[in-house]
Each structure stands twice: as C-alpha cells, then as structure tokens.
Design a protein that fits this description.
alpha/beta; globular; 8 helices; about 15% strand; Rossmann fold
Length: about 190
C-alpha cells in the first residue's frame, strides 16, 4: 500500500507513520531523513543538498524529488511505503503525482490527521519541556502552523479532488488514533480491490 500521511506539525505524523510501518510491514519515508542520509553518505544529490543547506537556504524541490525517486527504487518500498509529511505544498504534490505516474506507482491512500491548533500547541509545549526541541517552542509552533495553513493545507484539497483523501481525527490516545488510521486503510483497500 502506498500512503501519504498529512497533518500539521505536531499532529502525530511521525509517531503514527512508525506504527503503520510496523503494522503494515512497509517502508517509512521521511524527506528530512532522506536529506540527512544523503548528505552523510556523500551521494551526488547529498552533496548538492549539503551545499544548499550550508548556504543557509532551503533544499530545492528538484533535489528532494530526486532523493525520493532514488528511495522509491529500493527493494523495501516495493510492498508499499508511507510518505511522512511530504508533499508540503501544491508544487510538490504535482511533482510527486508526475513522478508516481512515471513510475506507475499511484497512491492508494492519503490520510490527513486533523488536530486543532490549540491541541498541537499543547502537545508541542509538553515535548519542548521534555525534549527541549527548539522547533517545539510555542511561538515557533504557532509560526509553523501559520505556514502549514497557507502552504500545506491546500494539498489535502488536491488529493480530495483525486478521490484518495481520508481525514482522520488525530485527537486522543495514540492507540485509538492508530486504530482509526488502520480502519481507514482497510476501507480504502476494500474500495480499491
């Protein structure tokens, strides 16, 4: 099963992606992890990404898409994968759509975790206190949520128009949210069969 997992920063994407990976036996792909691994390994795309990051700029969509294409060619992605937090904007959604069409790997499901902003801020405050992650500072979280609303939220509409989006209540216990995700995937798999 090929899945995109969407949701605001702090909505639980990473946590749920890891759980889905274990439950479904498919690869978990985070573009941030891909970038860090490529830079560390010194691959051609990794060297390009490193130069951009060292210049204090954002890595281009072309580089990220190239890394993603390389990753999707690896054997562990053949049974399926979970793209965690990618695409982040409409340009990336269109580029991913074109890549997957060329690879003949259409998405089976796009799951969007819906969590109210107040709950996200509260979750991140707790994580900030426990893990001291700078990006979980409440002020930073509010800025990230504003960027998400402007740039990433429209991606859900993009997938809704294609008929692959399922919105999931992302509030509650981790196990309960995971259960809702799995139930949505079973419904999607039955519809695609």
């Amino acid at each position: 099963m090929r899945i995109v997992l969407l949701g605001a920063p702090g909505s639980g994407k990473g946590t749920q992606a890891k759980r889905l990976k274990a439950e479904l036996g498919i690869a978990h792909i985070s573009t941030g992890d891909l970038l860090r691994a490529a830079v560390k390994a010194g691959t051609p795309l990794g060297l390009k990404a490193k130069a951009v990051m060292e210049a204090g700029q954002l890595v281009s969509d072309d580089i990220v898409l190239g890394l993603l294409e390389e990753r999707l060619a690896e054997a562990d992605t053949q049974p399926g994968y979970i793209l965690d937090g990618y695409p982040r904007n409409l340009a990336q959604a269109n580029a991913l759509d074109a890549l997957l069409a060329r690879l003949q790997q259409p998405l089976d499901a796009v799951l969007k975790l819906n969590v109210p902003d107040a709950d996200i801020v509260k979750r991140c405050e707790i994580r900030f206190e426990q893990e001291h992650r700078a990006d979980d500072n409440p002020e930073t979280v509010r800025k990230r949520l504003a960027v998400y609303a402007e740039q990433t939220a429209p991606v859900a509409d993009f997938y809704a128009r294609r008929g692959v989006l399922t919105e999931i209540d992302g509030v509650g216990e981790i196990d309960a949210i995971g259960g809702r995700l799995l139930a949505a995937l079973r419904v999607r798999a039955a519809a695609n069969a």
